[in-house]
Amino acid sequence: MKSVRSKLIVSAIVAVLTPLCAFANWNAAPKPSATTASTVCTNFSGISFTGAVAPGATNGMVGTPQVGEIYTITVSGPGTGSFRIVGDAAGALTYAGPASVPGALSYAITASTTLSQGVGYYFDSGSGTVTLTAACVATAATPALGAWGIVGLASLLALLGLGFGQYKRSKEST
């Protein structure tokens, strides 16, 4: 009787999980670990410089950044000033900041980001020599289970719990 019950439990697990695993796309080919960066992100480090800075100093990459890209600007002295990460040459659209020199700003492009001409920096004030380092990273989407994957996982846990309960009862009765 016990071996029949065990075979039924294993059969039920296989019968439930096999179609769910296939439908949930668990057998799919692996996806790349990072997204492809936009041209703006790829070339963003090109605006890095060491030199004199003054109010209104600006530079950037023209184009459309992609959702998930993270833009970082780090500025060090001996010069002084205040800077922002902006979306246009006039500094009208601010993504992050202001920050003082020395300092760093980062901005992640989201679905709700108002995109303008590109991404760059704008100095509201400044004097002396500074070193500006620009960097961009394209991040990957966070993997998650779909609805059927969650159903399959919940079913697996429930069936394993039932199987363990049966196993424990059979051990206690012997």
Task: Describe the protein.
The protein is of the alpha+beta class. It folds into two domains: 2-31 and 143-173; 39-138, Jelly Rolls. Helix content is 31%, strand content 33%. The protein has three helices and eight strands; from the N terminus they run H-H-E-E-E-E-E-E-E-E-H. It has helices at 2-23, 39-43, 147-173, and strands at 49-52, 58-62, 69-76, 80-86, 94-100, 103-108, 118-127, 129-138. The strands form two sheets. It has a four-stranded antiparallel sheet, with no helix packed on it. Strands 2-7-4-5 form a four-stranded antiparallel sheet. A hairpin with a 7-residue loop joins strand 4 and strand 5. The longest helix has 27 residues, at 147-173. The radius of gyration is 28 Å and the shape is rod-shaped. Mean pLDDT is 80; it is low at 23-34.
